[in-house]
Design brief:
heterodimer; A: alpha/beta; Rossmann fold; 2 domains; seven-stranded parallel β-sheet; five-stranded parallel β-sheet; 8 helices; B: Rossmann fold; two-stranded antiparallel ribbon; binds flavin-adenine dinucleotide; binds adenosine monophosphate
Chain lengths: 325, 248
């Protein structure tokens, strides 16, 4: 099998999920005896492309064009599909990020390929790849097989390993794909990045506050704890709906699905829709004054008590441990 | 403006999901159903555009007769007309998108709206597949939309920020929470929905490309432990996170 892994980058820095899809492709290729080609699209990505070798790609295909500096749904889809055909890839792996989720369905249509989205595991069985993916926001898991000759999978970030190995730098091949005005029918004009804000979808530690925080002003405490831990701030829907926090922080079935190493839920009851978005976190800490709150049923570590006393003490203790004060 | 919105009928988000005896699907007995929450934002956006620019809104759903319940909800909110594409076979996103695209092609709308994701199988795929099949530009996960003549300026959510995308109509949009605040159907809306038409269509069969082999409940998480009560538990909590879990 030949694998094509989409190496997502922003501002010519590869995103961690790019390394995860390359490493996943490498693992499958080692079992099926195949090759891994990574694909980097952008403007000025060539210089960083060889580093993809260290993550398991034999070859890095680079498609460069000044107009590709920002993401374009239509142009990127054409490039990924054309390169997949040129490289005779049977399996295309794409990160299930904001960009990858937008891109993969178009790529699948162009390649007449079945699509398995947001997969959390891939395994080889005979000559097939079986994908596992959560459905109903993690309330059930399915195993699926894609029956078309070309297969596209998106992989949930933070679930697959991404470590650099001792592989040699990838051979870089420049590929020219001719693009017309029409190919840029949907193209990003501008990116507004919230200043240095760590997103819950990318964070390794998340500190979430719920209605138990009593009001928006008390989220300062949540932010301070997050700062001390280098974590992102998350929120329950109750506090987002109340306007205490922006909705891009909402975790849960109608918010973001996250799987950090550590999820700290403070004053969050643990409604089924909230659990749906965070129950696959490696470790869960719950701080709640109600010992019967459902969040304790899935918490690795629980503390029963008033958040207004516990959180300041926790901030101090963390700062002491991490030497920040 | 002629607008179409694709809506799905999904189990209530509070529902407990049980696996049916074939081991490949979920058990529908006793579940209550709702309009997919993201599709509600999509419906609302269409209604607002209609209020501003005039025109017509058509809601389309693929499924069995029970989907009429969700189509009626959209009609009660103010949608003008419903289309039910009758097909109850288990299908993948590709086949679903094909059935919708075939229908949408003949409607020649100015914009087509979807939810960013259906909260049953969580694929986030159908809207973008339809866009590609119809050769239309798209913006997914939209939190803000402005339409001026045949141009649309949309803001989509990405990790830690937003992207601004400009597209020419006709185009496809998938709605994210935050786009608007969906209205509740008024009594008058509910009454008039009863007399609005729901047209039934039969799609040409397509072969699914994805086969579900099994569906299971996730492994139960080991019961957690209560470290303690009040501030006294804090030093032990930090020690456990540092030494046992090694996450800080
Ligand atoms: C269609 C649909 C989709 C939904 N999607 C989501 C979603 O994506 N994400 C989501 O989070 N919810 C979602 N919900 C809402 C969900 O059902 C709950 O209403 C919500 O999660 C509750 O938020 P909460 O835990 O902050 O508030 P509450 O349930 O009110 O819990 C507050 C908690 O704080 C505790 N508390 C109070 N004071 C203190 C104190 N001083 N110290 C410590 N603890 C204290 C209380 O004991 C309680 O457990 C959805 C609901 C629906 C119907
Ligand atoms: N059976 C269906 N009928 C009509 N529209 C659907 C159906 N399933 C999904 N959709 C639309 O496609 C969007 C994305 O769904 P999905 O790709 O399944 O997550 C939904 O929010 C709906 O707008």
């Amino acid at each position: 099998m030949r694998f094509l892994a989409f190496a997502e980058q922003r501002e010519n820095k590869f995103k961690k999920p790019a390394f995860e899809v390359i490493r996943a492709a490498r693992t499958l290729a080692d079992q099926t005896g195949g090759e891994v080609v990574a694909l980097a699209i952008g403007s000025g990505v060539r210089s960083v492309a060889p580093t993809l070798g260290g993550h398991g790609a034999q070859k890095a295909v680079v498609v460069e064009n000044p107009k590709l500096e920002f993401y374009s749904s239509t142009a990127y889809a054409k490039i990924v599909a054309d390169v997949a055909r040129q490289q005779q890839a049977n399996v295309v792996l794409i990160p299930a990020t904001a960009m990858g989720k937008d891109l993969a369905p178009r790529v699948a249509v162009r390649l007449d390929a079945g699509l398995g989205t947001d997969c959390t595991a891939l395994r080889v069985e005979g000559s097939d790849i079986i994908a596992t993916r959560p459905v109903f926001a993690g309330k059930a898991l399915t195993d699926l097989r894609v029956n078309s000759s070309t297969k596209v999978f998106t992989l949930r970030p933070n679930v697959f390993t991404s470590g650099a190995g001792d592989e040699k730098p990838a051979d870089v091949e420049n590929v020219d794909i001719s693009l017309t005005e029409q190919d840029f029918a949907s193209a990003v004009r501008e990116v507004r990045q919230a200043a240095s804000k760590l997103d819950v979808a990318e964070a390794d530690i998340i500190v979430s506050g719920g209605r138990g925080m009593k009001g928006p002003e008390h989220f300062r405490m949540i932010e301070e704890l997050a700062e001390a831990l280098g974590a992102a701030v998350g929120a329950s829907r109750a506090v987002v709906d109340a306007g205490w926090r922006p909705h891009d922080e909402q975790v849960g079935q109608t918010g973001k699905t996250v799987s950090p190493s550590l999820y700290i839920a403070i004053g969050v009851s643990g409604a089924i829709q909230h659990l749906a978005g965070m129950s696959s976190s490696k470790y869960i800490v719950a701080i709640n004054k109600d010992k019967d709150a459902p969040i304790f049923q899935i918490a690795s570590y629980g503390v029963v008590g008033d958040a207004f006393e516990i959180v300041p003490a926790l901030i101090a203790e963390v700062r002491k441990l991490l030497g920040k004060g | 403006m002629k607008l179409a919105v694709c809506i799905n009928h999904v189990p209530d988000t509070a529902a407990k999901i049980n696996i049916s005896s074939d081991g490949k699907s979920y058990d529908r007995t006793g579940l209550s159903y709702i309009i997919n929450p993201y599709d509600e934002f999509a419906v609302e956006e269409c209604l607002r555009l209609k209020e501003k620019h005039g025109g017509e809104v058509i809601a389309i759903s693929v499924g069995s007769d029970v989907h009429k319940e969700t189509i009626r909800k959209a009609l009660a909110m103010g949608v003008d007309k419903g289309i039910l594409i009758k097909d109850d076979a288990i299908r993948d996103s590709f086949a679903l998108a094909r059935a919708l695209a075939d229908e949408l092609k003949s409607l020649s709308t100015d914009a087509i709206f979807f939810g960013k994701q259906s909260v049953d199988y969580d694929n986030s795929a159908v809207g973008l597949m339809v866009a590609e099949m119809l050769g239309l530009p798209s913006v997914s996960v939209v939190v803000k939309l402005e339409i001026n003549g045949d141009k649309a300026l949309a803001e989509r959510e990405i990790e830690g920020g937003h992207e601004i995308v400009e597209v020419k109509l006709p185009a496809v949009f998938t709605a994210q929470k935050g786009l608007n605040e969906p209205r509740y159907p008024s009594l008058k809306g509910i009454m008039s929905a009863k007399s609005k038409p729901i047209e039934e269509k039969h799609p040409s069969p397509t072969q699914p490309k994805v086969e579900v082999l099994s569906m299971n409940k996730p492994p139960a998480k080991a019961a957690g432990k209560i470290v303690g009560t009040d501030v006294h538990a804090v030093p032990e909590l930090v020690r456990l996170l540092h030494e046992e879990a090694k996450v800080i």
